[in-house]
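Format notes (please read before filing issues)

Several people have asked whether sequences and structure tokens are stored in separate files. They are not. Every record keeps both together, in the order shown below: the sequence lines, then the token lines. Line labels are part of the format and must not be stripped during preprocessing.
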Amino acid sequence: MRTIQVQELTKQAFDEYGSYYSITNPIGHNLGDFYHDHILYPVSGNEPIGFSALITHKQESMIVTAAEYHNTTAEILLPLDGDIVIHVAPPSNKPVPELTEAFYVPKGTMVKLNTGVWHLAPFAMDRDEAHVLIALPERIYFNDCIVVDYEKEQYIEIVKK
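Then the structure lines:
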């Protein structure tokens, strides 16, 4: 099993996978207390965006055994009440577990995963469970969600620095 370390979420390190913005500590362009358009989530046509709740649980070990991607959409994650760790790998036409990286996402920080980025559910870090808001086009998890289970020798253990 390969081991990877959790990295700090920085623009340079995460740029290939998407973008992020702290909702609870906003900075940058604003109109008074309204900090607008810091994460853009483009969608095509009249596709409704669904906002879903995910409860993720703290694990004794953070082991990545599978990944998924979407061909037609980005994905938004916003940890509401606890810090999380996400794992991502670059878009490709086949699984690339050997390119997986892990990032620490503080609560209140919105992350947008680009279309095609390999990922799966995050891990809770500082609490037994964390509630995460997920934004995806309606029913995309049924009609555009490619999930791949890794072979045991491809599993990845994520460790804190």
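For reference, the curators noted about this record: The domain at 2-28+46-159 is CATH 2.60.120.480 (Jelly Rolls). The chain is about 5% helix and 45% strand.
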